Amino acid sequence: MRSLWLLLGLGLLALCHVQASEEEELDLDNLDISDIDENLDEYLSLLEEKAKVSPPDRKGPEALIHNRFSMQIKDVERENEIASKLAAVQHNLLNPVVEVDPCETMPCGAGRICQMKDNETPECVCIPECPNELDTRRHVCTNTNETWPSDCSVYQQRCWCDSADPRCTNADNAHMHIDYYGACHEPRTCDGEDLKDFPRRMRDWLFNVMRDLAERDELTEHYMQMELEAETNNSRRWSNAAVWKWCDLDGDTDRSVSRHELFPIRAPLVSLEHCIAPFLESCDPNKDHRITLVEWGACLELDADDLIERCDEVQRAHPQLG
User: Fold this and answer.
1) Considering the entire predicted model, what is its pTM?
2) Each residue's pLDDT tens digit, 264-283
3) Maximum CA pair distance of the chain?
4) What value does the mean pLDDT of the chain take?
5) How far apart are the C-alpha atoms of 3 and 28, rounded to whole Å?
6) Which residue, among 201, 222, 236, has the nearest Cα to 306 in the 3D structure?
7) Looking at the DSSP assignment, which residues form a beta bridge with residue 125?
8) Mean of the pLDDT values across residues 137-166?
9) What pLDDT shows up at residue 165?
10) How many angstroms separate the CA atoms of 165 and 190, rounded?
11) Long-range pairs for 85-89 at CB < 8 Å and ≥24 separation?
């Protein structure tokens, strides 16, 4: 009899608990999914399938577990989405897309600038406008003994004449080059013994400049070795200095030096050596406005084969000069 009453009591308690579960909403924050038996993997998979259906009349613990599981799925999806965006941002930071200006790799030379043609193709055009120089120290004197407002105006005029632009004032200006900075002065005549002795003075000047640069440690390693050889071997004294300066002037490494490339050697000597201009003119016997290594050697009264051998050694030591 006592057991009967105990069974009835337990039944009533279970009935009350079921009713309370249906009428009251459980606290989702206090529900710990980990409390569910780990062996219920199949039950959780079933709930995941049911989540796709999501019937509106689901109630009780089944609805609670269903809702909580759905929230976890959404959280994982959200985390994956954020992780993908962060990965994309990191990739862009580590691998930025750099837009290269085609004109940056388009050398145009003096008197020209690079512009985009039809916003597609880079091309070199003459400088459209030069600054208005009021300072007379900016004036330059050309090989025609004509004073120009600036080096820019000389290069611009040369470009116009070279490209048959109507703004060209004289067709010969296509080969015009700067003789020295400053207004032109009355040139001194160089003839007779002065011109005959100039190659020797030029050879000595080249060697002295090379030695001064070596003492200031401003030569490359190979040129430093050439200078040391010139100091200790008189047969190499002038040829090494001549090859060093010629290779130094040959900026485009085409085995010839243009009048424009001669400017660094001509300009500082004009006021000191009145024979420099006629000397350099004599170095271009075919009047093609370029001086080859053989012509350079002939002007300096040096053996051409020796200079070519020296030049080959320089280019092997400096492949970028080949």
Assistant:
1) 0.50
2) 787 777 767 888 888 888 88
3) 152
4) 76
5) 37
6) 236
7) 113
8) 91
9) 92
10) 36
11) none
